[in-house]
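Continuing from the previous page of notes. For each protein in this section, the sequence appears first, followed by its C-alpha coordinates. Read the first protein now.
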Amino acid sequence: MRLWLLLSRFESGGLERVQANLAPALAQAGLDVWLVAGQFLADAKGMSPHSIATLEISPKGKHTFIAGLLKHLRSQRPDIVMTTSNDVACLMLIFRAVFFPKIKVICAQHLSISAPWHNARGVQRIKNRLLIGLMRYLWPKADAIIAVSSALAEDIRTTLKLRTTIHTIHNPVVLPDFEEKMQQNILWPWPDHAVATLGFAGRLAKVKRLDLLLDAFLQVVQTHRTRLLIVGDGPERAHVTRILEQRGLRAMCHLTGHQDNPLPWIKAVDILILPSDYEGFGNVLVEALACGTQVIATDCPHGPAEILENGKYGQLVPVDDSLALAQAIERTLLKDFYVPAQTLKRRASEFNLERAASAYLRVILEASIKS
Protein backbone atom coordinates (compact mmCIF):
# COMPACT_ATOMS: atom_id res chain seq x y z
CA MET A 1 0.00 0.00 0.00
CA ARG A 2 1.54 3.29 -1.12
CA LEU A 3 1.11 6.16 1.35
CA TRP A 4 1.93 9.77 0.56
CA LEU A 5 2.62 12.14 3.42
CA LEU A 6 1.78 15.30 1.49
CA LEU A 7 2.99 18.75 2.53
CA SER A 8 2.78 22.10 0.76
CA ARG A 9 6.51 22.42 1.41
CA PHE A 10 9.09 20.70 3.60
CA GLU A 11 10.84 23.26 5.77
CA SER A 12 12.49 23.31 9.17
CA GLY A 13 9.50 23.14 11.49
CA GLY A 14 7.63 20.99 13.96
CA LEU A 15 5.09 19.71 11.45
CA GLU A 16 7.84 18.51 9.12
CA ARG A 17 9.70 16.90 12.00
CA VAL A 18 6.56 14.94 12.89
CA GLN A 19 6.26 13.63 9.32
CA ALA A 20 9.96 12.73 9.30
CA ASN A 21 9.50 10.84 12.58
CA LEU A 22 6.37 9.01 11.46
CA ALA A 23 7.54 7.93 8.01
CA PRO A 24 10.10 5.27 9.02
CA ALA A 25 7.79 3.85 11.69
CA LEU A 26 4.95 3.46 9.19
CA ALA A 27 7.36 1.97 6.65
CA GLN A 28 8.45 -0.62 9.21
CA ALA A 29 4.79 -1.63 9.48
CA GLY A 30 4.87 -2.57 5.78
CA LEU A 31 3.62 0.58 4.06
CA ASP A 32 5.34 2.05 1.00
CA VAL A 33 5.78 5.54 2.48
CA TRP A 34 6.73 8.63 0.48
CA LEU A 35 7.42 12.13 1.76
CA VAL A 36 5.89 14.41 -0.88
CA ALA A 37 6.12 18.20 -0.89
CA GLY A 38 5.90 21.11 -3.25
CA GLN A 39 9.47 21.97 -2.37
CA PHE A 40 12.12 20.62 0.00
CA LEU A 41 13.87 23.69 1.40
CA ALA A 42 17.64 23.48 1.78
CA ASP A 43 17.71 24.01 5.56
CA ALA A 44 15.34 21.06 6.12
CA LYS A 45 16.71 18.43 3.76
CA GLY A 46 18.73 16.91 6.60
CA MET A 47 15.49 16.14 8.45
CA SER A 48 14.26 13.77 5.76
CA PRO A 49 14.98 10.11 6.68
CA HIS A 50 17.42 8.44 4.27
CA SER A 51 15.29 5.28 4.16
CA ILE A 52 12.18 7.10 2.90
CA ALA A 53 11.52 8.03 -0.73
CA THR A 54 10.91 11.72 -1.39
CA LEU A 55 9.11 13.49 -4.20
CA GLU A 56 9.31 17.22 -4.97
CA ILE A 57 6.29 18.10 -7.09
CA SER A 58 6.78 21.84 -7.73
CA PRO A 59 10.51 22.65 -7.52
CA LYS A 60 10.02 25.88 -9.52
CA GLY A 61 7.68 27.37 -6.93
CA LYS A 62 4.14 27.26 -5.56
CA HIS A 63 2.63 28.52 -8.83
CA THR A 64 3.32 25.04 -10.31
CA PHE A 65 2.01 23.10 -7.30
CA ILE A 66 -1.45 22.28 -8.69
CA ALA A 67 -0.13 21.03 -12.03
CA GLY A 68 2.70 19.15 -10.33
CA LEU A 69 0.36 17.43 -7.90
CA LEU A 70 -1.99 16.34 -10.69
CA LYS A 71 0.90 15.07 -12.80
CA HIS A 72 2.46 12.98 -10.03
CA LEU A 73 -0.86 11.61 -8.80
CA ARG A 74 -1.41 10.28 -12.28
CA SER A 75 2.04 8.71 -12.52
CA GLN A 76 2.40 7.44 -8.95
CA ARG A 77 -1.21 6.47 -8.13
CA PRO A 78 -0.82 6.38 -4.32
CA ASP A 79 -3.42 4.35 -2.44
CA ILE A 80 -3.68 6.86 0.43
CA VAL A 81 -2.73 10.53 0.68
CA MET A 82 -2.43 12.10 4.13
CA THR A 83 -2.40 15.90 3.96
CA THR A 84 -1.07 18.37 6.53
CA SER A 85 -2.34 21.76 5.33
CA ASN A 86 -5.86 23.06 4.80
CA ASP A 87 -5.63 24.28 1.21
CA VAL A 88 -3.76 21.16 0.05
CA ALA A 89 -6.38 18.98 1.76
CA CYS A 90 -9.16 20.77 -0.12
CA LEU A 91 -7.29 20.47 -3.40
CA MET A 92 -6.68 16.77 -2.84
CA LEU A 93 -10.36 16.14 -2.05
CA ILE A 94 -11.38 17.95 -5.27
CA PHE A 95 -8.87 15.93 -7.32
CA ARG A 96 -10.11 12.72 -5.73
CA ALA A 97 -13.72 13.56 -6.59
CA VAL A 98 -12.94 14.46 -10.22
CA PHE A 99 -10.00 12.26 -11.26
CA PHE A 100 -8.99 9.66 -8.66
CA PRO A 101 -12.02 8.11 -6.94
CA LYS A 102 -10.01 5.14 -5.61
CA ILE A 103 -7.47 7.23 -3.66
CA LYS A 104 -8.21 7.53 0.05
CA VAL A 105 -7.66 10.95 1.63
CA ILE A 106 -6.81 11.56 5.28
CA CYS A 107 -6.77 15.15 6.56
CA ALA A 108 -4.30 15.56 9.43
CA GLN A 109 -4.64 18.91 11.21
CA HIS A 110 -1.63 20.29 13.07
CA LEU A 111 -2.64 23.90 13.68
CA SER A 112 -5.63 25.84 14.96
CA ILE A 113 -8.23 26.65 12.31
CA SER A 114 -10.12 29.35 14.18
CA ALA A 115 -7.18 31.29 15.65
CA PRO A 116 -5.48 32.29 12.36
CA TRP A 117 -8.88 33.33 11.01
CA HIS A 118 -9.69 35.52 14.03
CA ASN A 119 -6.16 36.98 14.21
CA ALA A 120 -5.98 37.86 10.50
CA ARG A 121 -6.92 41.26 9.12
CA GLY A 122 -8.05 42.62 5.76
CA VAL A 123 -7.61 40.46 2.68
CA GLN A 124 -6.02 37.61 4.63
CA ARG A 125 -9.07 37.37 6.88
CA ILE A 126 -11.32 37.15 3.82
CA LYS A 127 -9.10 34.42 2.34
CA ASN A 128 -9.21 32.46 5.59
CA ARG A 129 -13.00 32.77 5.73
CA LEU A 130 -13.37 31.49 2.17
CA LEU A 131 -11.05 28.57 2.92
CA ILE A 132 -13.08 27.65 5.99
CA GLY A 133 -16.22 27.67 3.86
CA LEU A 134 -14.56 25.31 1.39
CA MET A 135 -13.36 23.05 4.21
CA ARG A 136 -16.89 22.85 5.64
CA TYR A 137 -18.07 21.48 2.32
CA LEU A 138 -15.14 19.18 1.49
CA TRP A 139 -13.78 17.78 4.75
CA PRO A 140 -16.83 15.62 5.55
CA LYS A 141 -15.91 13.72 2.37
CA ALA A 142 -12.45 12.76 3.71
CA ASP A 143 -11.86 9.13 4.64
CA ALA A 144 -10.47 10.18 8.03
CA ILE A 145 -9.65 13.35 9.96
CA ILE A 146 -6.86 13.52 12.54
CA ALA A 147 -6.14 16.27 15.08
CA VAL A 148 -2.94 16.41 17.14
CA SER A 149 -4.72 17.42 20.35
CA SER A 150 -8.19 17.03 21.83
CA ALA A 151 -8.65 20.81 21.98
CA LEU A 152 -7.72 21.07 18.30
CA ALA A 153 -10.24 18.32 17.46
CA GLU A 154 -12.92 20.39 19.17
CA ASP A 155 -11.79 23.48 17.26
CA ILE A 156 -12.13 21.58 13.97
CA ARG A 157 -15.53 20.22 14.96
CA THR A 158 -16.87 23.63 16.01
CA THR A 159 -15.33 25.78 13.26
CA LEU A 160 -16.18 23.42 10.42
CA LYS A 161 -19.49 22.28 11.96
CA LEU A 162 -18.49 18.65 11.48
CA ARG A 163 -20.39 15.65 12.74
CA THR A 164 -17.90 13.09 11.47
CA THR A 165 -15.39 11.31 13.71
CA ILE A 166 -12.17 13.17 14.45
CA HIS A 167 -9.28 11.04 15.70
CA THR A 168 -6.95 12.64 18.27
CA ILE A 169 -3.33 11.48 17.97
CA HIS A 170 -0.65 13.35 19.89
CA ASN A 171 2.54 14.11 18.03
CA PRO A 172 5.38 11.55 18.16
CA VAL A 173 8.01 13.70 19.84
CA VAL A 174 10.04 11.39 22.08
CA LEU A 175 12.15 9.07 19.91
CA PRO A 176 14.40 6.13 20.85
CA ASP A 177 17.56 8.21 20.26
CA PHE A 178 16.45 11.16 22.41
CA GLU A 179 18.86 10.54 25.26
CA GLU A 180 21.82 10.30 22.87
CA LYS A 181 20.82 13.52 21.10
CA MET A 182 20.53 15.39 24.40
CA GLN A 183 24.14 14.60 25.22
CA GLN A 184 25.64 16.03 22.03
CA ASN A 185 28.17 18.79 22.61
CA ILE A 186 27.24 22.40 21.92
CA LEU A 187 29.28 25.59 21.85
CA TRP A 188 27.89 27.52 24.83
CA PRO A 189 27.90 31.24 23.94
CA TRP A 190 28.91 32.50 27.39
CA PRO A 191 32.03 31.77 29.46
CA ASP A 192 30.08 30.06 32.28
CA HIS A 193 26.78 28.46 33.28
CA ALA A 194 26.47 30.40 36.53
CA VAL A 195 23.69 32.72 35.34
CA ALA A 196 20.12 31.44 34.99
CA THR A 197 19.29 31.09 31.29
CA LEU A 198 15.86 31.36 29.71
CA GLY A 199 15.35 29.63 26.39
CA PHE A 200 13.16 29.71 23.31
CA ALA A 201 13.41 27.08 20.58
CA GLY A 202 11.45 27.14 17.35
CA ARG A 203 10.75 29.03 14.18
CA LEU A 204 11.14 32.79 14.54
CA ALA A 205 7.70 33.74 13.25
CA LYS A 206 5.15 36.33 14.35
CA VAL A 207 2.80 33.77 15.84
CA LYS A 208 5.56 32.63 18.23
CA ARG A 209 5.57 36.11 19.82
CA LEU A 210 9.27 36.66 20.45
CA ASP A 211 8.34 40.30 21.07
CA LEU A 212 6.28 39.22 24.09
CA LEU A 213 9.16 37.14 25.42
CA LEU A 214 11.56 40.07 25.05
CA ASP A 215 9.12 42.38 26.87
CA ALA A 216 8.95 39.90 29.77
CA PHE A 217 12.72 39.37 29.73
CA LEU A 218 13.29 43.13 29.97
CA GLN A 219 11.15 43.16 33.13
CA VAL A 220 12.90 40.15 34.67
CA VAL A 221 16.44 41.47 34.19
CA GLN A 222 15.57 44.49 36.34
CA THR A 223 15.63 42.26 39.43
CA HIS A 224 17.31 38.97 38.40
CA ARG A 225 20.58 38.12 36.66
CA THR A 226 19.40 36.16 33.65
CA ARG A 227 20.30 35.43 30.06
CA LEU A 228 18.18 34.55 27.05
CA LEU A 229 19.06 31.91 24.46
CA ILE A 230 17.03 31.89 21.24
CA VAL A 231 17.40 28.70 19.19
CA GLY A 232 16.05 28.76 15.66
CA ASP A 233 15.67 30.92 12.62
CA GLY A 234 12.89 32.45 10.58
CA PRO A 235 11.39 35.60 9.09
CA GLU A 236 11.35 37.49 12.42
CA ARG A 237 15.08 37.17 13.09
CA ALA A 238 15.94 40.67 11.87
CA HIS A 239 13.08 42.15 13.89
CA VAL A 240 14.19 40.32 17.04
CA THR A 241 17.77 41.53 16.54
CA ARG A 242 16.55 45.14 16.23
CA ILE A 243 14.57 44.86 19.48
CA LEU A 244 17.62 43.50 21.29
CA GLU A 245 19.73 46.40 20.06
CA GLN A 246 17.10 49.04 20.85
CA ARG A 247 16.58 47.80 24.40
CA GLY A 248 20.22 47.20 25.23
CA LEU A 249 19.75 43.45 25.66
CA ARG A 250 22.28 42.22 23.09
CA ALA A 251 24.97 41.23 25.62
CA MET A 252 22.46 39.16 27.62
CA CYS A 253 20.94 37.38 24.61
CA HIS A 254 22.26 35.00 21.99
CA LEU A 255 20.64 33.76 18.77
CA THR A 256 22.04 30.40 17.68
CA GLY A 257 20.34 30.27 14.29
CA HIS A 258 18.86 27.04 12.98
CA GLN A 259 19.98 23.87 14.79
CA ASP A 260 19.32 20.41 13.36
CA ASN A 261 19.35 19.10 16.92
CA PRO A 262 17.94 21.60 19.43
CA LEU A 263 17.79 19.10 22.31
CA PRO A 264 21.20 19.82 23.95
CA TRP A 265 20.38 23.53 23.85
CA ILE A 266 16.99 22.92 25.47
CA LYS A 267 18.63 20.71 28.09
CA ALA A 268 21.21 23.43 28.85
CA VAL A 269 18.72 26.22 29.66
CA ASP A 270 16.97 26.59 33.01
CA ILE A 271 13.51 27.46 31.65
CA LEU A 272 12.05 26.83 28.19
CA ILE A 273 9.40 29.40 27.23
CA LEU A 274 6.75 29.13 24.51
CA PRO A 275 4.94 32.52 24.23
CA SER A 276 2.81 31.79 21.12
CA ASP A 277 -0.53 33.29 20.14
CA TYR A 278 -1.66 29.84 18.99
CA GLU A 279 -0.31 26.34 18.41
CA GLY A 280 -1.67 23.04 17.21
CA PHE A 281 0.31 21.06 19.75
CA GLY A 282 3.65 22.49 20.93
CA ASN A 283 6.33 19.87 20.24
CA VAL A 284 9.03 21.93 21.93
CA LEU A 285 7.21 21.67 25.27
CA VAL A 286 7.45 17.88 25.13
CA GLU A 287 11.11 18.14 24.12
CA ALA A 288 11.76 20.34 27.15
CA LEU A 289 9.91 17.96 29.48
CA ALA A 290 11.98 15.08 28.08
CA CYS A 291 15.14 17.05 28.90
CA GLY A 292 13.92 17.68 32.45
CA THR A 293 13.79 21.43 31.78
CA GLN A 294 11.23 23.67 33.49
CA VAL A 295 8.66 25.10 31.08
CA ILE A 296 6.35 28.09 30.81
CA ALA A 297 3.83 28.56 28.00
CA THR A 298 1.00 30.83 27.06
CA ASP A 299 -2.35 29.15 27.53
CA CYS A 300 -2.98 29.49 23.82
CA PRO A 301 -5.13 27.36 21.55
CA HIS A 302 -4.74 24.45 21.27
CA GLY A 303 -1.92 22.29 22.65
CA PRO A 304 0.04 23.63 25.64
CA ALA A 305 -2.65 23.14 28.30
CA GLU A 306 -3.11 19.54 27.15
CA ILE A 307 0.62 18.77 27.25
CA LEU A 308 1.13 20.47 30.63
CA GLU A 309 -2.12 19.04 32.02
CA ASN A 310 -3.54 22.47 32.80
CA GLY A 311 -0.45 23.68 34.62
CA LYS A 312 0.59 20.54 36.48
CA TYR A 313 3.86 20.15 34.56
CA GLY A 314 4.58 23.80 33.78
CA GLN A 315 3.09 27.23 34.25
CA LEU A 316 0.47 28.55 31.85
CA VAL A 317 0.00 32.30 31.43
CA PRO A 318 -2.53 34.36 29.45
CA VAL A 319 -1.80 35.09 25.79
CA ASP A 320 -0.29 38.52 25.05
CA ASP A 321 0.44 39.36 28.72
CA SER A 322 4.13 40.17 29.22
CA LEU A 323 3.64 41.02 32.92
CA ALA A 324 2.09 37.62 33.65
CA LEU A 325 4.90 35.95 31.71
CA ALA A 326 7.55 37.90 33.65
CA GLN A 327 5.91 36.92 36.94
CA ALA A 328 5.84 33.25 35.92
CA ILE A 329 9.55 33.42 35.04
CA GLU A 330 10.33 34.93 38.44
CA ARG A 331 8.33 32.20 40.21
CA THR A 332 10.39 29.53 38.47
CA LEU A 333 13.69 31.35 39.10
CA LEU A 334 12.82 31.55 42.81
CA LYS A 335 11.62 27.90 42.73
CA ASP A 336 8.19 28.94 43.96
CA PHE A 337 7.04 26.75 41.07
CA TYR A 338 9.23 23.73 40.39
CA VAL A 339 8.58 20.26 38.98
CA PRO A 340 11.24 17.55 39.54
CA ALA A 341 13.08 16.56 36.36
CA GLN A 342 12.06 12.91 36.62
CA THR A 343 8.39 13.89 36.83
CA LEU A 344 8.77 15.98 33.68
CA LYS A 345 10.51 13.13 31.87
CA ARG A 346 7.79 10.65 32.80
CA ARG A 347 5.18 12.99 31.36
CA ALA A 348 7.19 13.42 28.15
CA SER A 349 7.44 9.65 27.69
CA GLU A 350 3.69 9.53 27.03
CA PHE A 351 4.28 11.35 23.72
CA ASN A 352 6.43 8.62 22.18
CA LEU A 353 6.83 7.44 18.61
CA GLU A 354 5.54 3.90 19.14
CA ARG A 355 2.21 5.08 20.55
CA ALA A 356 1.65 7.67 17.83
CA ALA A 357 2.71 5.40 14.95
CA SER A 358 0.34 2.64 16.14
CA ALA A 359 -2.55 5.11 16.28
CA TYR A 360 -1.78 6.49 12.80
CA LEU A 361 -1.45 2.99 11.38
CA ARG A 362 -4.84 2.04 12.80
CA VAL A 363 -6.50 5.06 11.16
CA ILE A 364 -4.70 4.43 7.84
CA LEU A 365 -5.78 0.78 7.72
CA GLU A 366 -9.38 1.69 8.58
CA ALA A 367 -9.39 4.31 5.80
CA SER A 368 -7.94 1.85 3.30
CA ILE A 369 -10.96 -0.48 3.61
CA LYS A 370 -13.56 2.26 3.79
CA SER A 371 -16.09 1.98 0.97
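Done with the first. The second protein uses the same format. Note its length before scrolling.
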Amino acid sequence: MSYSESYTCDVCGKKKGVDESWWLAWVDCFPGRAPEEDQPLIKLTRWQTYHAHSDGVKHLCGARCAGTLMDRWMMDQHADPDAHCETV
Protein backbone atom coordinates (compact mmCIF):
# COMPACT_ATOMS: atom_id res chain seq x y z
CA MET A 1 0.00 0.00 0.00
CA SER A 2 1.36 3.44 -0.86
CA TYR A 3 0.83 6.69 0.98
CA SER A 4 0.20 9.95 -0.80
CA GLU A 5 -0.34 13.44 0.52
CA SER A 6 -2.40 16.13 -1.08
CA TYR A 7 -2.28 19.85 -0.48
CA THR A 8 -4.83 22.50 -1.34
CA CYS A 9 -4.18 26.20 -1.85
CA ASP A 10 -5.63 28.05 1.14
CA VAL A 11 -6.74 30.90 -1.12
CA CYS A 12 -8.18 29.41 -4.33
CA GLY A 13 -8.64 25.72 -3.45
CA LYS A 14 -6.40 24.36 -6.25
CA LYS A 15 -4.85 20.93 -5.57
CA LYS A 16 -1.04 20.76 -5.62
CA GLY A 17 0.55 18.72 -8.42
CA VAL A 18 3.75 16.73 -7.96
CA ASP A 19 6.18 19.06 -9.76
CA GLU A 20 4.55 22.43 -9.04
CA SER A 21 6.46 25.19 -7.26
CA TRP A 22 4.29 26.34 -4.37
CA TRP A 23 4.80 28.71 -1.44
CA LEU A 24 4.26 28.68 2.32
CA ALA A 25 3.15 31.63 4.46
CA TRP A 26 2.59 32.12 8.17
CA VAL A 27 2.12 34.88 10.72
CA ASP A 28 4.98 35.56 13.11
CA CYS A 29 5.88 38.27 15.61
CA PHE A 30 8.20 41.25 15.18
CA PRO A 31 9.30 42.02 18.76
CA GLY A 32 9.17 45.57 20.04
CA ARG A 33 11.05 47.05 22.98
CA ALA A 34 8.23 45.80 25.22
CA PRO A 35 5.52 43.15 24.69
CA GLU A 36 2.86 45.82 24.11
CA GLU A 37 4.94 47.05 21.13
CA ASP A 38 5.15 43.63 19.42
CA GLN A 39 3.75 43.63 15.90
CA PRO A 40 2.35 40.73 13.86
CA LEU A 41 4.09 40.11 10.55
CA ILE A 42 3.57 37.71 7.70
CA LYS A 43 6.36 35.54 6.28
CA LEU A 44 6.58 33.83 2.90
CA THR A 45 8.99 31.16 1.70
CA ARG A 46 9.25 28.56 -1.06
CA TRP A 47 7.65 25.17 -0.58
CA GLN A 48 9.23 22.67 1.76
CA THR A 49 7.18 19.58 2.56
CA TYR A 50 8.42 19.32 6.14
CA HIS A 51 7.27 22.87 6.95
CA ALA A 52 4.01 22.38 5.06
CA HIS A 53 2.88 20.31 8.05
CA SER A 54 3.53 23.08 10.62
CA ASP A 55 0.61 24.59 12.53
CA GLY A 56 -0.62 27.85 11.09
CA VAL A 57 1.17 27.50 7.75
CA LYS A 58 -0.82 28.49 4.66
CA HIS A 59 -0.26 26.65 1.37
CA LEU A 60 -0.17 28.92 -1.68
CA CYS A 61 -0.16 27.87 -5.33
CA GLY A 62 1.52 30.99 -6.71
CA ALA A 63 2.10 34.72 -6.71
CA ARG A 64 -1.53 35.67 -7.28
CA CYS A 65 -2.75 33.71 -4.26
CA ALA A 66 0.21 34.93 -2.17
CA GLY A 67 -0.79 38.49 -3.07
CA THR A 68 -4.42 37.81 -2.19
CA LEU A 69 -3.42 36.35 1.18
CA MET A 70 -1.19 39.38 1.83
CA ASP A 71 -4.01 41.76 0.89
CA ARG A 72 -6.44 40.00 3.25
CA TRP A 73 -3.89 40.01 6.06
CA MET A 74 -3.19 43.73 5.55
CA MET A 75 -6.91 44.51 5.64
CA ASP A 76 -7.20 42.61 8.94
CA GLN A 77 -4.26 44.62 10.33
CA HIS A 78 -5.89 47.92 9.31
CA ALA A 79 -9.19 46.79 10.85
CA ASP A 80 -7.43 46.31 14.21
CA PRO A 81 -4.37 48.61 14.26
CA ASP A 82 -3.80 48.01 17.98
CA ALA A 83 -3.49 44.25 17.54
CA HIS A 84 -0.38 42.69 19.00
CA CYS A 85 1.15 39.27 18.61
CA GLU A 86 -0.86 36.43 20.08
CA THR A 87 0.85 34.65 22.92
CA VAL A 88 0.39 30.94 23.23
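What the second structure shows: Strands lie at 23-30, 39-46, 58-60. The chain has a mean pLDDT of 89. We return to this in next week's lecture.
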